[in-house]
Design goal:
By secondary structure, this protein is an alpha/beta fold. The chain has two domains: 190 residues, Class I glutamine amidotransferase (GATase) domain (Rossmann fold, 3-Layer(aba) Sandwich); 124 residues, Homeodomain-like (Arc Repressor Mutant, subunit A), CATH 1.10.10.60. The protein contains 17 helices and eleven strands. It has a seven-stranded mixed β-sheet with strand order 5-2-1-6-7-11-10, with helices on both faces. A hairpin with a 5-residue loop joins β3 and β4. The protein is globular and about 70 Å long. The model has no long low-confidence stretch (mean pLDDT 91). This is GlxA family transcriptional regulator. Keywords: DNA-binding, Transcription, Transcription regulation. It comes from Actinoallomurus oryzae.
Length: 333
């Protein structure tokens, strides 16, 4: 088979792991065959050495302008993410070359915030896409013709592939390898890197306490801190408002305005996090875990985890069990 040309686009302020993760996966795919499956080319504006986010710099193989003016077919165009994607001058310098490159590419991809540069070039208009969870709102606001899916590790829509943040670039690269070379090769590489070929769940795998901003009002901030240890209790708006010394309407409005989340969504996220920890570390049944986090029935927890993490409690445990007890429970499923 002839090697597929993959052009990995970098710029000042890109994030090194966003490049290194996919590059290592694709290089591993090359080592699986006598003849390399991929021809990997790094490119930057002007072909200049690029400053990595954090201070180091790397040399690249080619200039974007040189590749754009050529006639060779490109299998995969991949725009790497990083803080530089948010800088208008950096983004525009890269984006102006992308439509020309995209016309010669079989598929167009991005890692993390690289989706912002694809969107700036108009290459995500009319497509579903994702990016780092912290940039999803920005992408949706600035580029309304892009349908943003915030809780996805990666999104494949026709010939566009976009990934969530940082290590999700590895998930994306494994998906590309599987599409090109088959599941067996992707699984071999995943085992080498000690990762899953398909990670269970979406990118909403970070703490609700970290995701939400601390409330300014002391009584609301106190409830934020109190809630994780009282998920099994009555957490209606009436109960929480009384605890905060506010009317229900004032509490609900103030909580949403100050934390960026409704009380119900905040509580549900805490319950999902608590359930995940128990699935990872205990052999409790799903029904028992549901009751421990405040749901009356295991079916309710099933529905919430399916909606929030795109998986089931049993499947989540099979992937992420970290203790002997949890692993035994996973094997018994």
């Amino acid at each position: 088979m002839s090697a597929r040309t993959i052009v990995l686009v970098v710029y000042d302020g890109f994030q090194l792991i966003d490049l290194a993760g996919p590059l290592d996966v694709l290089a591993a795919a090359n080592r699986a065959f006598d003849t390399p499956a991929y021809r990997l080319i790094t490119a930057s504006p002007g072909g200049r050495a690029i400053a990595v986010s954090g201070g180091a710099s790397i040399a690249v193989d080619r200039a974007l302008e040189e590749i754009a003016s050529g006639a060779d077919d490109i299998d995969t165009l991949m725009v790497i993410g990083g803080d530089g994607a948010f800088a208008p001058d950096v983004s525009s310098e890269v984006a102006r070359h992308l439509p020309t490159l995209a016309r010669r590419s079989r598929r167009i991809t991005s890692v993390c915030a690289g989706a912002l540069i694809l969107a700036a070039a108009g290459l995500l208009d009319g497509f579903h896409a994702t990016t780092h969870w912290g940039a999803c709102d920005h992408l949706a606001r600035r580029y309304p013709r892009v349908t943003v899916e915030p809780d996805r590790i990666y999104v494949h829509d026709r010939d566009r592939w976009t990934s969530a943040g940082v290590t999700a670039g590895i998930d994306l690269a494994l998906a590309l390898v599987e599409a090109d070379l088959g599941a067996e090769v992707a699984q071999l590489i995943a085992r080498h890197f000690v990762v899953f070929v398909r990670r269970a769940g979406g990118q909403e795998q970070y703490s609700a306490q970290l995701r939400s901003q601390p409330a300014r009002t002391p009584s609301i901030r106190a409830i934020q801190q109190w809630l994780p240890d009282h998920l099994h209790e009555d957490l209606t708006i009436a109960t929480l408002a009384e605890r905060a010394g506010m009317s229900q309407r004032t509490f609900a409005r103030s909580f949403s305005a100050e934390t960026g989340s409704t009380p119900a969504l905040f509580i549900e996220t805490l319950r999902v996090e608590a359930a995940r920890r128990m699935l990872e570390t205990t052999d409790l049944t799903v029904d028992a875990i549901a009751r421990a986090v405040g749901y009356k029935h295991g079916k309710t927890l099933h529905r919430v985890i399916a909606r929030r993490l795109s998986t089931t409690p049993d499947r989540y445990r099979q992937h992420f069990a970290t203790t002997p007890a949890a692993r035994r429970a996973a094997k018994a499923i």
